[in-house]
Amino acid sequence: MMMDKIEELERRYQELEALLSDPSVISNQPEFRKFSREHSDLTDLVTVYRRYRKILGEIEENRELLGDPDMKEMAEDELKALEAEQQQLESDIQLLLLPKDPNDNKSVILEIRAGTGGDESALFAGDLFRMYSRFADTNRWRVETISASESERGGFKEIIASVEGEGVFAKLKYESGTHRVQRVPETEAQGRIHTSACTVAIMPEAEDVDIDIRSDDLKIDVYRSSGAGGQHVNTTDSAVRITHLPTGTVVACQEERSQIKNRAKAMKVLKTRILATIQQAQDDKLAADRKQQVGSGDRSERIRTYNYPQGRMTDHRIGLTLYRLDSIMAGDIGEIADALRAYYQMEALKAQSGG
Description:
The chain contains nine helices and eleven strands. The chain has helices spanning about 5-20, 25, 30-65, 70-95, 120-140, 170, 260-285, 325-330, 335-355; strands spanning about 110-115, 140-150, 155-165, 175-185, 195-205, 220-225, 240-245, 250-255, 300-305, 310-315, 320.
């Protein structure tokens, strides 16, 4: 284990504690937030390492007691428990030392699109959006719709929203992919089970420092907003469509009555999509020499099945099956997010150790 590195990080942690109590740092909010984030990132590692050091000391003390006939039996029992905890803490430290995804603390752009299955797919897109919205509520995140194309029978052909809060990407990044639903549609007279699918994309929200887009590379069109069925919901040209000419990326927004607000929302999505494309290209390059890309979140991959007749959800990547579909669709997906994160952390650990 890299104890020298951990001790260096612990010293940095102590420096940060001093800085965060310095009045000159407290009065400089950008600097204070930066140091607070770094302190928070190190807290788990330092806490576990300090416990690990304490355990090593207790193990040494108990080994010294093995030579005492009166204390030997008790010391042996203590040693078994302490050595088991030592192994667990060493495993925890290895995980905590894995390089952190720089996007983990970011807010995200969530895109859900109906796929195969027609109206039933659109209805399922609406179900997925409600699931994520309720999960966001439990985490005190803010969900704001950027654009939505509603289906005539309900649900969405496509819906794009921002999900803002601390650590959103860390919890949602493994949701990208194809989500399949198996259920009997309300319009199915014979009671036959239909299979439909939606695609979900989770992209870390681009910040101004992440990507610079030249105004000369943009084509901006404005037009009147319209609702489902084509009826006008606005009498002014408030809807905005932005085309990034070098990449051909097109984003439209008409949710707000203000053209300025729609333009700001559309630019947010545009930057995020372009950044996601750049990052995907980098990921593909890094993965070229590997048989399997760990945690790629490939959108074309069928990742999960929601089977309504059996009340079952199965995540195909990790073989997780839960028989509580009602609570999952009501937003209780924390267990799934945690299981996925643990799995991909272990995969990264194996890759790092050459296993």
